[in-house]
Design brief:
two-stranded antiparallel sheet, 336 residues, alpha/beta, Isopropylmalate Dehydrogenase, 2 domains, ten-stranded mixed beta sheet, 11 helices, Rossmann fold
Amino acid sequence: MDLCVIEGDGVGHEVIPAAVRVLKALMPAVKIYPVQAGFETFRRTGSPLPAETLAIASTYRGVLFGAADSPSFPVDGYYSPIIALRRHLNAFASVRPTRYLPVAAARRGLDLVVIRENTEDFYVVDEQTEADGNTSTAQKVITRAATERVSHLTYQLARRAEREQVTIVHKANVLPQSDGLFRRVALEVAEQYPDIETDELLVDTAAYWMVKDPSRFDMVLTSNLYGDILSDMAAGWSGGLGIAPALNIGHDAAIAEPVHGSAPDIAGKGIANPTAAILSVALLLRHHWKRPDEARAIEDAVRAALEAGHHTVDVQPGGAIGTEAFTDAVINHLPA
């Protein structure tokens, strides 16, 4: 197996090497191909996603991506490298599981998955501001083809994981054309999977339930923006974004990606939590490389390390263990 590794920016330089250490400890034969992307790369080379990076990612089709700085203001020539890479590899679905782990603030028994369409909606990044600076517009794009493929993937994953319910989330009462199309197509696909219960919620109602009682959900199928928000909300019930994994997946490519961002405030201090990156590698093993036993071994090792009291400062009051020490603890709990 071959893995393209992009550390990116900020804490990506710490958590991604940690995840690679865990993977190599379990599967020494995996070949690692390190390349560059992100805002640091943009400032150094003029491109946030160099041609060499795209070429290697395209060749090996499995990627571990750390984090990229995302300025909240326009920077001439800069664009989101992770969005561009998702499109380039046609990784059209983002799989965001939220499961209970033994850390402070986590909810026992929680086990849900948010799956979001990953290539369109407002994330086509088509914005304009009028010359007077007083009005900005953004284009929202929803297509039948993209909705069909993410819907089929959602129901196929539900069957594979023996899940019982998919909740389709939209705002078709306000956006009857764009969200209405997403809703209609998703429900059409749902009819082809009668063994799985389907219901639907408006996104504001879904947000209410995600706060009040997330156990109401089994799997959530939604569009790009709503999925981005709802999956982050769900992560709050599992201990925070520092332990929230994700996998961007298509038919023949996948990008494992912790979702916590570059965290410049703690970058370089050796205290970043590598759990999300490590668990993202487990998702890559399970869904892309079809190695469920190895995926489970990593997940069990993370859980065992946490149960043994190895906590980073962001998930447990008084937790003092750093990035490297936590990684060592996970490796020590891998099967011999």
